[in-house]
Amino acid sequence: MSDSPGATTTATSAYELIGGAPSVREAVDRLYTYLLADEQLREYFDGVDLPRLKGHMAMLLSHVLGGPATYPVEHLGSAHAGLGVSPAHYERVVQYAAGVLFELHVPMDIILQVGQVLASVQPLIVRPAAA
Ligand code: HEM
């Protein structure tokens, strides 16, 4: 009698809305498939421990979408230090990320929300190459 179907007191996070962990995993897998297939980008990833990188990217995406995993965003600075990522290559990765979310039917407002986070971390990622 007190049950009211459909009534909920907890707000649904963007993470839950897009399908949780399996969707995040799929997004990350697709993203690195595209990045490694891109002639301008693939060299950056030579010798990189991809399973570890994908794991960290999944944690970051979960974090940004309000999921259970957290990732210390300030680590992005040290992770990209010395890679010499150019503004054009940064943009290219952002475009792939947005494209993957679009492919997975993530709602546009969530894609834009992720885009804002990516824009905010740009100064941590685009740095002059180490001399
Ligand atoms: C667009 C925003 C980007 C985000 C959110 C991002 C996110 C990440 C994350 C979470 C890691 C793992 C760091 C860790 O181990 O804790 C990582 C590592 C890495 N990223 Fe990015 N990244 C971005 C852009 C780029 C770009 C533009 C490039 C190069 C074209 C790039 C190349 C790399 C490489 C090579 C590593 C591995 C570094 C290593 O382990 O030695 N990233 N990135």
UniProtKB/TrEMBL annotation:
Transport found in the keyword field: yes
InterPro entries attached to this UniProt entry: Globin-like_sf (IPR009050), Globin/Proto (IPR012292), Hemoglobin_trunc (IPR001486)
Binding site residues for heme: 56, 80
Keywords: Heme, Iron, Metal-binding, Transport
Gene3D superfamilies reported in the protein's UniProt record: Globins
GO molecular function: heme binding; metal ion binding; oxygen binding
Keyword Protein transport in annotation: no
Superkingdom field: Bacteria
Bilayer-spanning residue ranges: none
Protein name: Group 1 truncated hemoglobin
Organism ancestry: Bacteria, Bacillati, Actinomycetota, Actinomycetes, Micromonosporales
